[in-house]
Specification:
Helix 5 runs antiparallel to helix 6, helix 8 runs antiparallel to helix 13 and helix 11 packs antiparallel against helix 18. It is built from 18 helices and no strands. It is mainly α. The longest helix has 30 residues.
């Protein structure tokens, strides 16, 4: 396979490569400290309630930022939008670095914790514009695959810094590195990205909400229940591994790396198949893995069993690019970024309520937290299995 055929197969071009570079640089900085924020909050005197607040904030801000993220991308283009979002996240890094108190960590998180959510509509718009329609799942998969590189290596490096310098100093060093990487990424992205210049007239939110009907509405309802399953235990996974089962931060970093490597291995073959077959089975399978994770985690108390649990957690990415591609396929032309942002506004806005309450389930017991999550996941999976349509490949 020659170079051109290889780049065509993986849906790569200069715009895609520039975007992927930005994702790696910003992500590497973010995930060195992001995964350990629950431990940082506790080390600074916060309680389980503060951890639940962090989890709820991540979902709520993801919801609130998704719509303006899509709106801004449609209005000024994805290049300017992605640069602005990266600068926005740097404000949060500065707050965490300068003010080491759990209250200020929550304030700083307002700026950086939802970078992926605010940037995702612009990234999806870039992919939709930069690659052919019959390669969109591959394009989304390449973004998802590359995004897992910093998600795998970041926590590993962050874990090493914590083991060397302690939780508080180690995490602050992580965010100093994050600030430096964000600055470099902006210069690289600005120099090499090619914006098509096509901008859509932004649509009012009520008009965009009308796009969330039919097949896209079924996907949204199922997705909400499955995200209940994901987010109820999300912020407490690191607490379960490190505090409840006695592993160290470096071992948690290894587990996270295993999760990300598992996801990365499956992205390309699944994308190749999903671009050529009905997409429903891929989404159903990924919802099933979301559902299984908290149940398996409950019974995983050794490093060996936790490896199995985190492999399952990695396999939940099986059909995630397919799901994102479906959102773009089912969104009206000229309104794709806005509809994508509105989808996440509705989804994450609802899920944030449950995420805020996750701390109270944890206080009752980890078992109650994990089993409640499993139940919601089962409901969401069954809804899509029964009512979801057999979406066909793009023509």
């Amino acid at each position: 396979m020659n170079k051109k055929r290889l780049t065509d197969f993986f849906a790569l071009n200069s715009s895609m490569l520039s975007m992927l570079g930005l994702v790696i640089m910003v992500g590497m900085g973010q995930y060195m400290g992001d995964k350990f924020l629950p431990l940082y909050l506790i080390a600074l005197g916060g309680s389980a309630i503060s951890v639940g607040a962090l989890n709820g904030m991540q979902n709520l801000l993801g919801a609130l930022y998704s719509f303006p993220g899509g709106y801004l991308s449609d209005k000024i283009g994805y290049k300017k939008s992605l640069i602005f979002f990266t600068l926005f996240s740097m404000i949060g890094y500065a707050i965490v670095i300068i003010l080491p108190a759990w209250q200020y960590v929550l304030i700083g998180a307002i700026f950086f914790i939802a970078w992926s959510a605010i940037a995702m509509p612009a990234i999806m718009s870039l992919i939709s514009d930069a690659v052919p329609k019959n390669k969109r799942v591959m394009g989304v998969s390449m973004h998802s695959l590359v995004r897992r590189v910093p998600m795998a290596l970041g926590p590993l490096i962050g874990g090493i810094l914590i083991d060397l310098y302690g939780i508080t100093k180690g995490i602050r060093i992580s965010f100093i590195i994050a600030m430096a990487l964000a600055i470099v990424s902006i210069f690289i992205f600005n120099a090499f990205i090619k914006d098509s210049g096509k901008k859509s007239a932004p649509v009012k939110i009520m008009a965009m909400l009308k796009n969330l009907k039919g097949n896209l509405g079924i996907l949204l309802i199922s997705d909400i229940f499955v995200r209940f399953c994901e987010q109820i235990p999300y912020a407490f996974v690191v607490v379960w591994v490190v505090e409840k089962n006695g592993l160290d931060a470096f071992q948690f970093g290894i587990l996270t790396m295993i999760e990300m490597l598992t996801a990365m291995i499956i992205y390309v073959p699944v994308a190749y198949l999903a671009d050529r077959h009905a997409k429903k089975p891929f989404v159903v399978i990924t919802f099933g893995f979301f559902t299984l994770f908290p149940l398996i985690l409950l019974f995983s108390r050794s490093f060996e069993l936790l490896i199995v649990a985190f492999v399952i957690r990695g396999l939940k990415e099986f059909g995630e690019p397919t799901r994102k591609s479906l959102i773009m396929d089912l969104s009206p032309e000229g309104q794709k970024a806005g509809t994508f942002g509105t989808y996440y506004l509705v989804r994450d806005g609802i899920v944030s309520i449950v995420a805020f309450l996750s701390a109270f389930l944890w206080i009752i017991s980890p078992a109650v937290n994990f089993l409640t999550a499993f139940t919601f996941g089962l409901i969401g999976t069954l809804i899509f299995l029964i009512f979801g349509k057999g979406y066909q490949k793009a023509s």
